[in-house]
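Box S1 | Example of a co-folding query
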Amino acid sequence: MTDKINKSEITRIVSAPGKVLLAGGYIVLDPNYTGLVFGLSARIHVVAQAVNPHPEGSNRILVDSPQFDLDAWWYEYGSVPENGGIKVTETHAEGSDPSSLRPNSRNHFVETTLNYVLSYISHKTNDSVTITPARFSIVADNDYYSSSGTSTVSNSRFKHLGTTISKANKTGLGSSAALVTSLTGAILTHYLPASRFSLSNPADLLTLHNLAQAAHCAAQGKIGSGFDVASAVYGSCIYRRFSPSLLKSIPAPGTAGFASAVAETVHKEWDHRTDKDSTALPRGYAIRMVDVTGGTQTVSMVKSVNAWRDGNPDESGKLFGELQKCVEGLARALKENKGEGEIGRAMRPVRELMKRIGDLSGTPIEPESQTKMLDALEGVEGVVGSVVPGAGGYDAAAILVRDDEETINRVEKFLEGWSENEGVKAKLLSVLGETEGVRVEDSATFRW
Ligand SMILES: Nc1ncnc2c1ncn2[C@@H]1O[C@H](COP(=O)(O)OP(=O)(O)O)[C@@H](O)[C@H]1O
Ligand SMILES: C[C@@](O)(CCOP(=O)(O)OP(=O)(O)O)CC(=O)O
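Box S1 (continued) | Returned holo structure for adenosine-5'-diphosphate
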């Protein structure tokens, strides 16, 4: 357990939103197509503090996640010769026995982000900015996890989940992308003066995006489309992916040339596109997420869709092309507020095409249990349309609803009844679609 955050020592709070890919799952992995992604009101916040070094801690950084049991990671940092940048190594808690280091507690997303961002800073500033001891505390809005644990502080905004991160039940809002993005922003704004880095400068925002994408891919061990990091940075947008080859020349952290390769990659010409102007939600309507207890693995779903696509280029090309039209049509219907009927008609074929791709590739993209639930949900007054978001699967649905109390009550009641009758646990999350990406929070007014 780490000390409580001392509010007077906070230097920065940076937050980034979760995501929902409303349309464009699978096709967005191919840069010939795009995806319609909305940021979510559930955010991950990283609170940066400078700390006075403990006698043994002149080169230590603490990252903690106080909502979880046992989740504090101590790192020692050191320079690596030959443009290797800065490498962190997990170590035991300050003032405790070295054997207290928990062998299975590594947080790859945190560790990789530290390696990438600290190395970038040291290289970019020619070591003129000194890395000093600091603490970065992560607090996530409650909707990221289904609460099986109990809140110990009932009136606090960020619930204590009573479990470790690895055991927490995620709701699929993109916690790692929001975490990597907000941590990257917090480290950059903590160490660099505003004259060198500011989130209100579009060029610096692009640096943050490229750095966060690179760190997120490295930590994940795979290169996804990156729509989750892009929406964490830019908020809602129509997203076209970057070429994975951009990331191929970065060696492992801690090796010669790592920092120069990171800086060079970050400042290359990236070919992703984030079109924010084409997205908006009509006034009086909201995107809401339904968490359905279950679980699917995106990795194998992507593999099976890709295998089908490779074996059926004509059929898949046709369906991917149709889905692309739906991405654009749905974005337009929402942005131009074409009315419930037309928006609903623009959402329908997204569902149908996703289901079709699932059926043809033998992948449970919109499995029968979801079809039944979504069909029934669409019959609830005030529900304009529904989709299985992202990769689809058994565990989530996204709905566009009238944003009024009566509709929300009706949907909640419907889901209660559905859960009882169908033996699942389907729950409306309080999270809403919103447009804003990464931002600096005002620490004086930040609500805890
Ligand atoms: N609140 C948090 N505090 C610390 N690390 C977190 C937090 N949320 C997410 N992470 C990191 O992200 C990982 C989850 O990433 P992943 O399985 O890709 O889920 P998601 O689909 O939500 O991004 C965790 O194992 C942890 O390393
Ligand atoms: C298949 C995809 O196009 C969309 C997956 O979207 P999800 O929202 O399902 O993603 P996870 O948070 O990784 O579970 C893969 C991708 O674009 O990377």
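Residues 44 and 140 are 4 Å apart (CA to CA). The pocket of DP6 (ligand 2) is lined by residues 21, 25-26, 28-29, 172, 174, 224-225, 227-228, 298, 302, 389-391 (CB under 6 Å).
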